[in-house]
Write a structure and sequence with these properties.
206 residues, alpha/beta, three-stranded parallel sheet
């Protein structure tokens, strides 16, 4: 048998899309990859300083002293939630859309950075009021939703580790994951809609 090579087609993106891209084209991309290949430590240090907010700036970029356990930016401190939300609001982008969400019934909603930050802070305050601290594990057992994103952001905000459990899993599967992670708390909801059917999440947790 012989096979013909597949025809190569290059489809250019629309001009309006190109204008909003972070890179102006393939030449810029190739220059960036060349820079990363030539000096990967310097490259990622530059990206980390330019694109992230550090509460305590890093001094060491890459620690290779204990291979294969390499660590990046080990002496720096940042907060993932702050970088995802606060810094955009502080730059005046609070009204910009952070999430476009389509619900199970097809209804589409938009959540701004300011709205998502407010919801995240509510979750974070509740978690802290229930005794959740940095290093604790939290199970998130709710539908794919804006609340799910806010719950994950809230865990990152206070330094807790979250584990998302698929809302279609059984009580046994949920129990196994709670025990395996040593979770101290489960974030859930009364129910979720999936494929037009209502699933009783809280009853499953109980």
């Amino acid at each position: 048998m012989s096979s013909q090579p597949a025809e190569l087609s290059v489809i250019q993106p629309p001009e309006a899309f190109v204008k909003q891209a972070n890179l102006s084209g393939m030449a810029a991309y190739e220059a960036l990859t060349h820079q990363a290949n030539q000096d990967y430590e310097g490259f990622w240090a530059e990206q980390a300083r330019r694109l992230l907010h550090w509460h305590r700036p890093f001094g060491t970029v890459l620690d290779e002293s204990n291979p294969p356990f390499f660590t990046w930016f080990e002496d720096g401190t940042l907060n993932a939630s702050y970088n995802c939300l606060d810094r955009h609001v502080e730059r005046g982008l609070g009204d910009k859309t952070a999430i476009i969400f389509e619900a199970d019934d097809g209804q589409v909603s938009r959540t701004s950075y300011s709205q998502l930050l407010a919801k995240t802070c509510q979750y974070a305050h509740v978690l802290k009021s229930l005794g959740i601290q940095a290093g604790d594990r939290v199970i998130i057992y709710i539908s794919m939703s804006v609340d799910g994103v806010a719950a994950m952001q809230a865990c990152a905000r206070i330094g807790a580790t979250h584990s998302v459990v698929f809302g279609g899993f059984s009580a046994q599967s949920l129990r196994d994951r709670i025990q395996d992670t040593g979770a101290k708390l489960v974030i859930t909801a009364d129910h979720q809609l999936r494929g037009g059917k209502q699933l009783p999440l809280k009853a499953i947790v109980d």
